[in-house]
Design brief:
- The protein is of the alpha/beta class and 249 residues long.
- It has helices at residues 8-12, 38-53, 83-99, 115-128, 163-172, 219-242, and strands spanning 19-24, 59-60, 104-109, 136-141.
- A four-stranded parallel sheet has the order 2-1-3-4, with helices on both faces.
- β1, α2 and β2 form a beta-alpha-beta unit.
- The chain is globular.
- Bound molecules: zinc ion.
């Protein structure tokens, strides 16, 4: 069920153990061919499909489109909350639900730049609320909940405006794709200095803004990705529902 469709008395009457999903995405450059809202559009589609699979099994908050995208800010149109502002914003979003008695909260992410601040946000919240034994505070990106590899994909992971995201956009919003993605070239995901983690900006990794291989995208791959990820989200929410609260599962 979607929070924004409900009255407050209906929310008041919900079981407090229902998983509360906070979808978090971004509005940022996605190369020459995909729109700025790509991450938000794709996460919204995954959420829409997952909600249909368990209509009464989870409470979905509205998608937060502003993400931590400072690494894309050199590309016009990209919008970003700086990491510390973003971290506080996420904590306020989650604490609203805690204040109303909900105990199981999942940040469902659709943008790589949100990963570090969102993990920090829930880690800090857990320390602040350390006396509580009933809380389950979780973060995941939707692409981590199911493995779509079926031998068709060249990219091993989601990348940025590459094979995976371009395929999904071909499936849900082909009218927003500019030019012919099949003419684009691969951009390597390597950061250099592996296995160390390197501070980076997109500008130094990609001239166009994409990372990966958008020329390999197809609508059929997009449908497979979206269906797989929606199944993964729904299965994970079932797992949250069945968990006994604070104990590891
Ligand atoms: Zn993206």
């Amino acid at each position: 069920m979607f929070l924004t469709d409900m009255t407050w008395p209906r929310v008041r009457d919900l079981d407090r153990a229902i998983p509360v999903v906070l979808p978090i995405a971004a509005v940022e450059q996605h190369g020459h061919h995909l729109p700025l809202a790509t991450d938000s559009l794709l996460l919204a589609e995954v959420v829409r499909r997952a909600e249909r699979r368990l209509p009464d099994g989870a409470l979905f908050a509205p998608l937060q489109w502003l993400g931590n995208s400072h690494h894309h800010i050199d590309f016009p149109g990209s919008m970003s909350a700086s990491p510390r502002v973003y971290l506080d914003l996420l904590q306020d979003m989650a604490e609203t639900f805690l204040r109303h008695g909900f105990t199981r909260i999942l940040f469902l992410n659709g943008h790589g730049g949100n990963v570090i601040p969102a993990k920090q946000a829930i880690f800090e919240m857990r320390q602040r609320l350390r006396e509580r034994d009933d809380l389950v505070l979780l973060f995941t990106s939707y692409w981590n909940l199911a493995d779509p590899q079926n031998g068709q994909f060249t990219q091993p992971e989601i990348g940025h405006a590459g094979e995976w995201e371009t395929s999904m956009m071909l499936r849900i919003a082909p009218h927003l794709i500019e030019g012919d993605p099949s003419l684009l070239e691969s951009v390597s995901p390597a950061l250099g200095f592996e296995p160390a983690y390197r501070g980076w900006t997109t500008r130094e990794r990609s001239k166009t803004g994409h990372i990966g291989s958008p020329q390999l995208a197809t609508e059929a791959k997009g449908e497979h990705l979206l269906a797989t990820f929606a199944d993964g989200v729904a299965a994970f929410l079932e797992r949250m529902r069945e968990s006994g609260g604070g104990a590891p599962v």
